[in-house]
């Protein structure tokens, strides 16, 4: 066994680990035998040997035993380093006190330390109780056994700050005191010290109860904090849900406004000419849209080798369909087709080509097809190249003949001579109301009573100009082919259309016009405008 001793050499204190056989005497007059060797290696060998015995020529030094009963020299070295950190006993006591405060259960540990301080040998007390009654093992006996294991056969004497090893200990209990006997000496604990120990235990229990009470209060506060935190989390979740719902509504409103604005822009730009910024470059390449012949189509295919020119065309025609990517090719495809190709050209094309047919296969115009796809894809982001080709084949080319018939000058051709409309102007001077003197009558005869918008537009464009000009008159130039009727004031719609106009011309003239039919709606609107002009006069 080994011991840790404190010696004083000059003004310094030294802590050393030595075999227990080198220490002799009681706590007050303890003597340390120290070898007179000069070699540290020899000294180290002697210190490591727990069975080494001092010789007569060894030095004798006064010392204070700090700790006894150390099993190995290595453990003693660790404890020596620990004790070397303390300059005096107060530092050591402060260190042990701080270690007690940092423990998880300071009250319970303090009680154990108090029991150890008064040299209560739980092992022998437990053995004594076991000898008295081997059949009855109480909870106190179990606690004493546990404390005995914790004590590890070492007890700390607080008054002398020394440790004593208990070997073959026998406990003898009397009425006035408790005596613990060892093989070396006997230490008697007075009854007053035992009472003091019990008082300390009671105080520790009171402190422990106070800690439990404080802990209960902290638990209650912690519970309140948890409830408050839970309420806050619930409120936060409700707020987040409200914000998310509001965000969804705002997104929907934004989409609606975006769509409406897009349609407004589309309507405002529909029918208007595309910006002429690119027209100069297109004109330099001798290309005019819409393409109306196979020759021009082949020229366009050759020019599209230049990628810059292709980008110019994409920018030019993308203003017709837009670039939102939200439209459908079924809605805007024909509109783009009319801007790129005429129906006459499309009627000369077929998709793959037919043997013995003079029509040209359009699928060979790869760059032209790619141009159409790029423009459409900007307006319809869901449209693929295959969808674009299917539209060109099944809608643009396949039905081009029907569109030609619908847009031709006559829907029903009975007789080529009947396809002409006679406009007869004459001035009535006999048997007329005085208020209708100098009234020129224009009679338009047609065998076709069907009304079509495009043909009526041609009639109105060629026959009537300046409806909003009240003072316009008929052009009296000798060339009757260039004569046109301006500002008619009244319109009467019968099976044949009769148009009357007040004029100073007394001649009877006739003009032939190649038109097919009339837009009845526009004639009515024109009639209202003429009536307004007449009323204002």
**Assembly type of the shown chains?**
single chain
Strand order of the largest sheet: 2-1-5-4-3
Distance between the termini: 141 Å
Domain tally: 3
How many distinct beta strands? Answer: 19
Fraction of residues in H or I helices: 40-55%
Structural classification: alpha+beta
**Overall average residue pLDDT:** 66
Helical segment count: 17
InterPro entries: DUF4806
Pfam family, one: DUF4806
Protein name: DUF4806 domain-containing protein
Organism: Spodoptera littoralis
Tell me what you see in this structure.
It is a single chain. By secondary structure, the chain is of the alpha+beta class. The protein folds into three domains: 2-192, no CATH class; 279-407, no CATH class; 416-536, no CATH class. 48% of the residues lie in helices and 18% in strands. The chain has 17 helices and 19 strands. It has helices spanning 40-48, 73-84, 89-101, 106-117, 122-132, 139-151, 191-269, 279-284, 294-303, 307-321, 329-340, 343-347, 366-379, 385-397, 400-407, 453-463, 520-536, and strands spanning 2-9, 12-19, 23-25, 30-34, 59-70, 154-157, 162-165, 170-173, 178-181, 186-189, 349-350, 360-361, 421-428, 439-445, 464-465, 485-486, 490-493, 497-502, 509-513. The strands form six sheets. Strands 2-1-5-4-3 form a five-stranded antiparallel β-sheet, with helices on one face. The protein has a five-stranded antiparallel β-sheet with strand order 17-18-14-13-19. Helix 13 (366-379) packs across helix 14 (385-397). This is DUF4806 domain-containing protein. InterPro entries: DUF4806 (IPR032071).
């Amino acid at each position: 066994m080994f011991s840790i001793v404190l010696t004083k050499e000059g003004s310094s204190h030294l802590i050393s680990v030595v075999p227990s056989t080198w220490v002799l005497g009681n706590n007050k007059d303890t003597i340390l035998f120290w070898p007179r060797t000069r070699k540290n290696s020899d000294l180290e060998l002697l210190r490591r040997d727990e069975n080494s015995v001092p010789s007569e020529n060894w030095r004798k030094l006064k010392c204070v035993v700090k700790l006894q009963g150390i099993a190995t020299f290595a453990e003693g070295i660790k404890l020596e380093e620990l004790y070397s950190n303390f300059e005096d006993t107060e530092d050591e006591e402060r260190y042990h006190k701080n270690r007690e405060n940092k423990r998880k259960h300071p009250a319970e540990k303090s009680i154990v330390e108090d029991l150890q301080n008064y040299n209560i040998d739980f092992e022998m007390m437990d053995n004594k109780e076991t000898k008295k009654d081997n059949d009855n093992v109480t909870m106190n006996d179990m606690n004493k056994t546990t404390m005995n294991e914790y004590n590890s056969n070492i007890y700390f004497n607080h008054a002398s700050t020394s440790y004593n090893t208990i070997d073959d200990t026998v406990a003898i209990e009397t009425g006035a005191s408790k005596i613990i006997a060892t093989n070396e000496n006997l230490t008697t604990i007075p009854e007053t010290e035992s009472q003091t120990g019990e008082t300390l235990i009671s105080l520790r229990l009171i402190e422990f109860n106070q800690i439990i009470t404080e802990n209960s209060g902290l638990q209650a506060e912690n519970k309140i904090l948890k409830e408050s935190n839970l309420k806050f989390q619930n409120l936060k979740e409700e707020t987040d849900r409200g914000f998310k719902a509001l965000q969804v509504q705002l997104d929907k409103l934004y989409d609606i406004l975006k769509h409406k604005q897009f349609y407004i822009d589309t309507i405002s730009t529909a029918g208007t000419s595309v910006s002429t910024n690119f027209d100069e470059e297109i004109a330099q390449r001798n290309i005019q849209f819409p393409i109306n012949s196979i020759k021009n189509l082949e020229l366009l295919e050759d020019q599209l080798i230049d990628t810059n020119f292709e980008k110019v065309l994409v920018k030019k025609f993308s203003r017709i369909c837009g670039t939102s990517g939200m439209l459908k090719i079924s809605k805007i495809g024909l509109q783009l087709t009319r801007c790129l190709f005429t129906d006459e050209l499309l009627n000369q094309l077929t998709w793959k080509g037919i043997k013995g047919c003079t029509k040209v296969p359009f699928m060979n115009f790869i760059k032209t097809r790619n141009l159409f796809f790029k423009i459409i894809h900007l307006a319809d982001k869901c449209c693929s190249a295959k969808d674009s080709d299917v539209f060109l084949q099944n809608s643009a080319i396949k039905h081009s003949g029907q569109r030609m018939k619908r847009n031709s000058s006559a829907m029903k051709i009975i007789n080529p001579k009947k396809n002409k409309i006679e406009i007869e102007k004459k001035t009535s001077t006999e048997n007329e109301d005085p208020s209708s003197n100098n009234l020129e009558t224009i009679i338009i005869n047609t065998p076709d009573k069907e009304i079509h918008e495009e043909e009526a537009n041609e009639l109105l464009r060629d026959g009537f100009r300046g409806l909003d000009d009240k003072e316009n008159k008929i052009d009296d130039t000798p060339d009757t082919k260039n004569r046109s009727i301006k500002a008619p004031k009244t319109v009467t719609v019968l099976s044949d259309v009769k148009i009357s106009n007040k004029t100073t011309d007394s001649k009877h003239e006739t003009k032939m016009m190649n038109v097919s039919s009339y837009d009845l709606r526009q004639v009515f609107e024109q009639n209202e405008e003429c009536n307004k002009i007449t009323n204002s006069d």
